[in-house]
Structure formats: C-alpha cells, structure tokens
Amino acid sequence: AVPGAAAAAAPGVSNMGSPPPSPPSPSVAVLLLLLLISTFNCGPVEAERPQTYIVHVSPSHKPPTFASHRHWYASTLSGLSVPAARILYTYDLAATGFAARLTLSQADALRGLPAVLAVEPDRARQLHTTRTPGFLGLTDVSGLWPNSHYADDVVIGVLDTGIWPERGSFSDEGLSPVPTTWRGACEVVADFPASACNRKVVGARSFYKGYEAARGSPINETEESKSPRDTEGHGSHTASTAAGAAVPGASLFGYAAGEARGMATKARIAAY
C-alpha cells in the first residue's frame, strides 16, 4: 500500500458523496430582494406617519399680528411640510402650547423655532394603583389631617379615566361650600348630568380627540365613554385614593373589611 495514494483518494470520495450546492432559483432571489427593500423602506415610512405631539410654547413670542395663540399656532403649522398638521387642543392656563398630529420631521422642524420650548410625543401610560393613608401614618388625633382641616380648601385635579360620581367616596356630606377660587366647569352630557357634580366633585371634563386620533377611529361608545364618566374604574380609584370621603364598611367581596378613605378626605375633586 502506498500512503500517498490513500491520502489523495480521500478527498475524491468525499466530493463524490456531497455534490456542490446549486445556485438559488430566480424566484428565491427575487423574494430576498423584496425583503431587503421592505426592510430599508419601513423606517422612513414609519417615521413620517403622523402621531400626536404636545408642543410647549413661550407665550411672550406671539407676534401682535395674530388675534390669538391658536391663530399663531395654525399659521406656524401651515408652513410645515405635507401632510397638513392638525391641531387637537390648545393650552393657555397651567401651560402654554398645543397638541397636534405631526410627522417626525415636522416635530423636528418645530423644535428649531425660538418660540418652541419643547416637543414631546404623546404616550399612553400604564395604569397603576397605590396604597392607603395608613402607609403615611396619618391620624385624626393630631398632625397634618386636623391641622389642615383635611384640605377642605384644596381642589385636586385627577387626569385619568374619569370618575363614577355616585360612589360613596364622592359624597359631599358635611362639606363646606366650594372654594370661591375655583373656576373650573362641570361638563354635562347624557350620562353625566349636572347632579353628578357636587361640593366634592366640583369639576369634570372629557378630552378624547388625541385618543381617537391615535387609534384612527371614533370611540365605540358601547364600550367606552366620551364623557367624564369612568367606564374603566381606574380614575375613580385614583380620585378616591387622593380625596375620597370616609366610607365605613368597605370591603373587597367581603374580604379586608374596614373604612375606605382618601389622603385628603375633605379636598375637592376635578376629574378628567
């Protein structure tokens, strides 16, 4: 036997048993090309899809030629690239600015304007719960509660899923008249009558245009509400945690029976 011959023969045997791979068919090549094109294209298309942004503006920059801030905002947006930007809300009390449907490039263009302080995307927030006043050690004997008269001159604004005003936590029994400094309103619609507001729930409004714009269709009123009425429960829970009246005999299906009460039992609530 010749060692060199065996070594030379081995590669030949291996090649005969595993033929070289054939080139991909034209249909497979076309499919791969389309996948590559769609991968590169989806980024820019997604970036130019309008979404809701909240734009904070310096009010002192408004030119005197505009009758109102809204006219000024509309004029500014009209100079942006297509598609046309759409204003959803304007703000002029706690903050100055507006919410609008913008593309990413339009939002970037606004950020470069001297009058614009910030441009933030509107994001859905995950709902959370919280604990009771016992966590802070509040008592009726002394301390913050009695010293502040249980915050009876305070109005707490709750931006959440609305409120269910008939709950015991929102009774106005024993409350003094509404503070004269309050300037808010109670939105009256079919499922939220004027009687829904009282000396406890002093204000209620609903804002849903941004939500409808984000989902791309009107709210289904058989499942959700366009009024301040809470159809989910979280807003009522949060409002009662902040300023719910004392409700004795509360429980969760018979468990954990006790008194339910908010942090500031005499504070007023404005629900949104």
Automatic annotation (TrEMBL):
Gene Ontology MF: a single term: serine-type endopeptidase activity
Keyword Protease found: yes
Residue ranges of domain Inhibitor I9 in the record: 52-128
Pfam families attached to this UniProt entry: Inhibitor_I9 (PF05922), Peptidase_S8 (PF00082)
Coiled-coil stretches noted in the UniProt entry, renumbered to this chain: none
GO biological process, one term: proteolysis
Residues annotated as signal peptide: 1-47
Domain annotation Peptidase S8/S53: ranges: 152-272
Entry similarity comment: Belongs to the peptidase S8 family.
Protein name from the UniProt record: Subtilisin-like protease
